[in-house]
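#structure-requests
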Amino acid sequence: MTIENISSNKVFGGWLKQYTHTSTTVNCSMRFAIYLPPQAATQKVPVLYWLSGLTCTDENVMQKSGIQRIAAELGIAIVAPDTSPRGENVADDTDGAYDFGLGAGFYLNATQAPFNTHYQMYDYVVHELPKLVEQHFPVTDKRSISGHSMGGHGAITIGLKNADRYQSISAFSPICHPIDCPWGLKAFNGYLGQDKQDWLEYDSVELIKASNSTVPMLVDQGTDDNFLEEQLKPETLVDAAKIKNYPLTLRMQQGYDHSYFFISSFIEEHLRFHGEYLLAE
């Protein structure tokens, strides 16, 4: 599998690079960003995968969160894929809405035409991208996963379904219960069809209820988030974790909103949380 470097910037002694490659999973060209900390010059390092939210790309977390400073200190690589397949032939929302189609892949494998041709983001994130990263960069196969909003949904569901592949999970403002919120209902109807049994495979609350294994999980949610009550519903995640005695820490952060100002305020704590598991001998 070949990749093409399209940008490179030195940051905190390490390197932030963007690459494109032809993806066999989503059947189009995909872009991802990787931050390699200084330690990667002499040894293999573990990886934190970051999944961004609606309308975002690989650039948001790398440009707005300040994630590289602590990643450089700890010696953790950061990999951020795009949020959906893209291109002239990739199906989009017929009205061009921000919450479905391009920029809104929801980190699932679509089953409904025409979206099933390209929208296989679950397989891309879980299988193709890590294989590519581990082939081309000085990284180990120790992985953790994090994300924001739609990407928080992706991080939690992927981590829960692949407890053997990830050391830890974290999320900012995740869509916790997509089978019961407008964003999720629209996406799941469009990508997965009307059989709601299929939806349960991509719902964090339902996956916790059904889980037989655990991955340590940290979630931060701002109390002044405009989407808190209608779309995000963190209380549903807490209730499910209590039922299963699942190791979830959910922190309500007073006064914070849905933006990267919120993420940048707590990203250091998330990286140190992941570092406890990624860097453990």
